[in-house]
Amino acid sequence: MQEHKVSSRNRKKLAIPALLPLMLVIMLLAGCGNNSAADNGARNGAAQVNAAAATPSPSPEEEPEATEAPAAQAYPLVVQDELGHEVTLNAAPTKVFAPYMEDSLVVLGVKPVGQWSNKGQGQGYLQDQLGDVPLVDFTNGQLPSPEVVMSLQPDFIVLHNSYYAENGVYEQYSKIAPTYVFQQAAGDLDSSVTKLGELLGKQEEAAKGLADYRKKVEEAKTALAPHIQGKKALVIRFNSRGMFLMGGVYGGFVLAEELGITKSDLVAAENSVDLSLEVLPQIDADYIFLANDTANTGETFYKELTESALWKSIPAVQAGRVYDVDDRYWLGGGIVAYSNVIDDVLEIIVP
Predict the structure, then answer these.
(1) Looking at the structure, do residues 48 and 95 belong to the same domain, yes or no?
(2) Residue-number span of the structural domain to which 252 is assigned
(3) How far is Cα 249 from Cα 341, in angstroms, rounded to an integer?
(4) Are 339 and 107 a contacting pair, CB within 8 Å?
């Protein structure tokens, strides 16, 4: 940086002991003028130096500034949930009950006071981290009673979709602890994980988890691109009630919305469609993924489908592009589940 120098006036001593008054006046006026110019020059020079110091010229060797970590959440916190309820948190929650959002809690490093389960089984792919967390029964979609939830002593309850809040459940649960309701948390992970991080004071963990996941998605899309052009995919789910074509939910969401693999026309506008043998000739998918919901005993319908002559006539079946997948995370919702689905898809499709 160049230094801005302000020159000072040269002062001359008067050599003549007595001067004419007129000449004295002229010299005094000239001196005042020089003082003013010097002062202005000093101020201008200092201003230029300060401005240069405040805004240094960019240099190619300089490292870009690191992105600031999200600010710590301040409590008390008053928010409105996605159904319009006002929710007040006086402090960061430490005893959280968020059934079927355990995947997101794991990403945030939070262990809940109880975990969703169906017929005595929690979400299998999370049990290495949640194995010691009490199971709370949600079999057949039945929500636990207020008494069961109260016994967990939560200081915050999160319901992952609006269905869970119906039939007076929200009113009952919100008397136990502040209760936040999502419309459909699994349908928008960026929003739901970010919001959950804000509510729990885990913004930094939420941002990192999402950034890592987005990086994985982009890398997978790049690897898949040469293999999925013009191809369609379909997920078929089996449980005790029947068999269903899955559209934009769970593993189907990852295939279509995250990885960009075109949906079968049969589920182009639906999240789930009942499947019967009569529909099989209409299946237009190049890749078919079978998720047998073992907790809901889908084995009977699985055999009915895969042993039928109509099934064996489908082009994807004849081409050997039918794959049994792990229902524990293909029918789950969250960063961990979706990451596992991506791993499966890459292993199956990319040589």
Answers:
(1) no
(2) 223-349
(3) 12
(4) no
The pTM (predicted TM-score) of the whole model is 0.77
DSSP letter for each residue of 153-217? --SEEEESBGGGGTTTHHHHHTTTS-EEE-SBGGG-HHHHHHHHHHHHT-HHHHHHHHHHHHHHH
Token representation of residue 329: 């995370």
Q: Number of folded domains in the chain?
A: 3
What CATH number is given to the structural domain containing 118?
3.40.50.1980
Point out the domain boundary residue: 19, 43, 65. 65
Domain assignment present for 209 = no
pLDDT tens digits, residue range 300-320? 999 999 999 999 999 999 999
Alpha carbons 241 and 331: distance in angstroms, whole number: 15
Digit-coded pLDDT (tens) for 55-71: 333 444 444 444 555 66
Contacts 24+ apart (CB under 8 A), 74-78: 75/201, 77/199
